[in-house]
User: Fold this.
Amino acid sequence: MPFLDHLEELRWRLVKSLGSILLGAAITFFFIDSLIDLLIRPTRNLSTPMDLQVLKVQGMFMIKWGIAMIGGVVLAIPVLTYQLWKFIAPGLLDDERAFAPMLVITTIVSFVI
Assistant:
């Protein structure tokens, strides 16, 4: 495959990966209030309760989108792994491709955890 075709393949893999991250972030943002509640729940057992303070006008919005983007990456891990494998696999030798089942199993276990 010529060099420019490799770049075109990489571009489409990156577009699909970013699309899956953004879709995951949108799904996460839909549940953001319950996620923030889940994240601050351990602090309720402190002797002096913690209050969230936002010092900038856009502070809470940026916190919510930051959590949503992290959630989007977490939700997109299977798609990211698949896109990475589909880009790398054609350049591997047969004995190097033998590591694919271990990669798939490790990714699924990590995603579930």
Notes: DSSP finds six helices and no strands in the chain.
